[in-house]
Design a protein that fits this description.
23% of the residues lie in helices and 34% in strands. The protein is built from 3 helices and 14 strands. It has an 8-stranded antiparallel beta sheet, with no helix packed on it. A 3-stranded antiparallel beta sheet has the order 1-14-12, with no helix packed on it. Helix 1 runs antiparallel to helix 2. The longest helix is centred in the first third of the chain and has 25 residues. The radius of gyration is 20 Å and the shape is elongated.
């Protein structure tokens, strides 16, 4: 399966080449340092930021099988009841998490289940804190079929994040806490749960993907 490390190579490889060339330029052409040194500093800063952004730490999934875990790291910005918009699953509870550029951006499955269907929708790239970003932005939605009921997850691209990456596909069986994709450079992840689930978080809480309980099956 693809990984965050492999995704990072798309950026690290050209940055590494540029950094190497700038180092050689500084060594071989000392009089050009006024120009090359600032560029080298910028290149190094970008290189280490990409390494930091694409980190993918291991997480301990709660042992209680009734616990539904966070699908992403970040700040809970919304907990509300609404109609699920993509798979006609009816009235559900939506838990929305905002991911800043400093959060881990690997997305994890909140439940054990099978990927029944995915829907990709092109759209805008509003700041994901905008109230209409959920309906107007580019997104990839996942319908997960579980033994206890349907669950949906939405990956939403934002102002800076303009690339949603899927590592799983329709028909795959996915374990709770397993990696299924990521969104590059700032985004929003939403989880839709049946109404009978007990929500364990509130707006303002910080959560960690795969390890933080966000709800509980009845």
């Amino acid at each position: 399966m693809p990984s965050a490390r492999q995704e990072s190579l798309r950026f690290l490889t050209p940055l590494g080449v540029i950094t190497t060339l700038l180092i050689l330029a500084n060594l071989l052409v000392p009089w050009a340092m006024l120009v090359t040194l600032p560029l080298l500093a910028l290149s190094l800063a970008l290189f280490f930021f990409v390494l930091y952004f694409f980190r993918d730490p291991e997480r301990a999934v709660p042992s209680d099988e009734k616990i539904i875990v966070a699908a992403a790291d970040g700040l809970v910005v919304s907990v509300e009841e609404m109609d699920e918009p993509d798979f006609q699953l009816g009235r559900m509870r939506r838990i929305a998490v905002f991911l800043s550029v400093f959060d881990v951006h690997v997305n994890r499955s909140p439940v054990d289940g099978q990927v029944k269907k995915t829907i990709y929708k092109p759209g805008e790239f509003l700041d994901v804190r905008h109230p209409e970003s959920s309906t107007r932005n580019e997104c990839l939605s996942w319908s997960l079929e579980t033994a206890r009921g349907p669950v949906a997850v939405r990956q939403i691209a934002g102002l800076i994040a303009r690339r949603i990456v899927a590592w799983s596909k329709e028909g795959d069986t996915i374990k709770r806490g397993a990696r299924f994709g990521m969104i590059r450079f700032g985004s929003r992840t939403e989880v839709f749960l049946p109404l009978e689930c007990s929500v364990l978080v509130k707006p303002g809480d910080r959560v960690a993907g795969a390890s933080s309980p966000i709800a509980r099956w009845p």
